[in-house]
């Protein structure tokens, strides 16, 4: 199937039609939900749909690094290729990358004080990025994506500035924001306060084992249509409601990659399962790593590379509510965990969740980084023998998860129990079926 056919058959046409032709240039749209519902994947699919029509997209993220955003695009694109049999996919991907520019303001959000104008999502920084793209990179977007606008601290003036920016640039401007859970058709707080400054509002709402898209505002129309669309949880791809979920369709584990540390215990078991299912694995290590037991896919980090994962022990101790050791071996292991979480877009951990919501042992640092960077995070608690998901505010018992992103981290305790080992094996089995006999 060629690019034009793929675009014409895309569920995003339903998305556009329900909004009487779409958002439109010079307008502002908001994707809203509680944390962890899939706002970033939806924004990426909106952007990718435009990119397949040769539109230029500037993507500014306050939630993820540039590499993480690029991975989202790659995963959505590869899933599109697999489901639509897109012809000349390599050439199309080159065109996509040529028409897309990604900036991360995640560091600004973490370090900047609360602003009176736009919260940590500083309007000033957004405008600086736009001006840099136009004047220095000669990149003039037709679609502007702002992932993670801080509505909790933002003022009405901040959103007025975004609206003015959309009109001055003549772009479709999409914003994602965390809000309170949606109650019926009522606008969640704080969108109810600034609704007059927004043209289109789409909410993501959990329902059993899926996430539905709901249109809450459509320009000035009072005839709000049902989108009849959902996010498929394993792939976070927008699909029609009448299509079977992708969990019913087999997926090729060779398209996925385990990122881990190769140490004895849970990490070694993750690696053994990856090998059994014919999946590549990357195990970050360093010279003198005595706890390394996996020999497949080992990446020995140089001194400078290892130090990229350096951090303040005082800061880490504060986040984990306990004192961390200065022993070089242990500290280097913690540095490799930084690399593991950085290079994954979904995280699975085996351990014990403590009363203060941290996870026991060194695994806790990987979990804290995942929470800090808002990675989809699942922990199998060996004492409670159940899976838990971080909602953004608390640990919630969840149905056994599946591996849904092409690069995922497998971390955990060295004291792996039989229940923990079984949880890892069943995770792969749920995600990919039985291992290939050839493996």
In the CATH hierarchy, the architecture of the largest domain is 3-Layer(aba) Sandwich
Would you report the number of β strands? 17
Tally of helical runs: 15
Let me know the CATH homologous superfamily of the largest domain. P-loop containing nucleotide triphosphate hydrolases
Proportion of beta-strand residues:
15-25%
Helix share of residues? 25-40%
Number of domains: 2
Which structural class do the helices and strands define? alpha/beta
Mean pLDDT: 82
From the alpha carbons, calculate the radius of gyration and give it in angstroms: 22 Å
CATH topology descriptor of the largest domain: Rossmann fold
- Read across the widest sheet, the strand sequence of neighbours is 3-2-4-5-1-6-7-8-9
């Amino acid at each position: 199937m060629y690019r034009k056919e793929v675009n014409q058959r895309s569920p995003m046409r339903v998305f556009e039609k329900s909004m009487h032709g779409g958002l439109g240039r010079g307008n502002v749209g908001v994707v809203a939900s509680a944390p962890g519902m899939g706002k970033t994947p939806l924004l990426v699919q909106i952007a990718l749909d435009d990119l397949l029509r040769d539109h230029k997209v500037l993507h500014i993220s306050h939630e993820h690094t540039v590499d993480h955003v690029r991975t989202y695009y790659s995963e959505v694109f590869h899933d599109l290729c697999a489901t639509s049999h897109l012809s000349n996919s390599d050439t199309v991907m080159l065109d996509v990358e040529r028409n897309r520019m990604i900036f991360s303001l995640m560091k600004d959000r973490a370090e900047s004080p609360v602003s009176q104008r736009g919260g940590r999502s500083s309007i000033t920084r957004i405008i600086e990025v736009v001006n840099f793209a136009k004047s220095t990179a000669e990149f003039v977007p037709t679609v502007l994506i702002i992932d993670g606008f801080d509505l909790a601290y933002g003022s009405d003036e901040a959103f007025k500035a975004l609206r003015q920016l959309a009109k001055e640039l003549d772009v479709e401007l999409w914003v994602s924001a965390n809000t309170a859970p949606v109650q019926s058709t009522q606008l969640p707080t704080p969108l109810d306060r600034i609704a007059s400054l927004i043209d289109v509002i789409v909410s993501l709402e959990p329902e059993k084992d899926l996430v539905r898209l709901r249109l809450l505002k459509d320009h000035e129309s009072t005839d709000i249509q049902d989108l009849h669309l959902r996010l498929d949880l394993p792939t976070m791809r927008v699909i029609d409601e009448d299509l079977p979920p992708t969990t019913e369709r087999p997926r090729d584990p060779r398209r996925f990659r385990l990122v881990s540390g190769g140490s004895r215990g849970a990490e070694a078991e993750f690696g053994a399962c990856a090998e059994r299912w014919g999946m590549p694995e990357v195990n970050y290590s360093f010279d003198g790593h005595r706890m390394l037991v996996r020999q497949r896919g080992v990446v020995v980090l140089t001194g400078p590379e290892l130090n990229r994962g350096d951090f303040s022990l005082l800061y880490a101790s504060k986040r984990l509510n306990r004192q961390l050791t200065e022993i070089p071996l242990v500290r280097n292991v913690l540095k490799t965990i930084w690399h593991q979480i950085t290079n994954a877009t979904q995280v699975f951990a085996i351990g014990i969740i403590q009363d203060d919501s941290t996870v026991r042992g060194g695994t806790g640092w990987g979990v804290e980084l995942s929470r800090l960077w808002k990675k989809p995070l699942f922990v199998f608690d060996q004492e409670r023998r159940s899976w838990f998901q971080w909602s953004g505010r608390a640990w919630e018992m969840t149905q056994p998860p599946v591996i849904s992103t092409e690069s995922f981290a497998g971390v955990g305790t060295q004291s792996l129990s039989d229940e923990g080992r079984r949880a890892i094996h069943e995770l792969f089995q749920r995600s990919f079926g039985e291992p290939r006999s050839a493996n």
